[in-house]
Amino acid sequence: MLVRSAWERPPHGLAQAPVPCHTSLVRLSRPRVLLRAALLLVGAAFMFWRAWEARAAARTGAGAPQALLLERVALIEGLVGVLALAAAAAALLALRRRPRTHTLRLRLEDPERRPR
């Protein structure tokens, strides 16, 4: 008996490995990928804005220990923004039209490989 997801248990007495959750056969539609990319871009812009504010606060009047902490927070927020930009770029690259590849190439001339 096949296990359909990682959350289902196999029948008693049969030890089977669960199906990995990341191997889904569901494909995201084009509008959903665009929505994902747009939300990632908005999140990246927000993180860059927060990093800009933290950096400005660190420069304007904070004490030395607090300025160092704000500089580090600004650095982390900027890196999260860069990560969100990279994820949005990957999502947008997934929208490219690619030629269809056939993994199983059966020629009809070959009688042994003809579908029955």
Your description of this structure?
The chain is mainly alpha-helical and 116 residues long. It has two helices and no strands. The protein has helices at 30-59, 64-93. The protein is elongated, with a radius of gyration of 25 Å.
How many beta-strand segments?
A: 0
Biggest sheet features: none
Order of helices and strands: HH
What is the alpha-carbon Rg in Å?
25 Å
Shape: elongated
Approximately how much helix is present in the residues? Answer: 40-55%
Count of helical segments? Answer: 2
The helix/strand class is: mainly alpha
- Uncertain stretches of 5 or more adjacent residues: none
Mean pLDDT: 80
What is the strand content?
under 5%
In whole angstroms, the N-to-C terminal distance is: 28 Å
Briefly say what this structure is.
Helices cover 52% and strands 0% of the residues.
Strand-helix topology:
Layout: H1 30-59, H2 64-93
Helix pairs in contact: 1-2
Tag the structure with descriptive keywords.
116 residues; mainly alpha; 2 helices; 52% helix
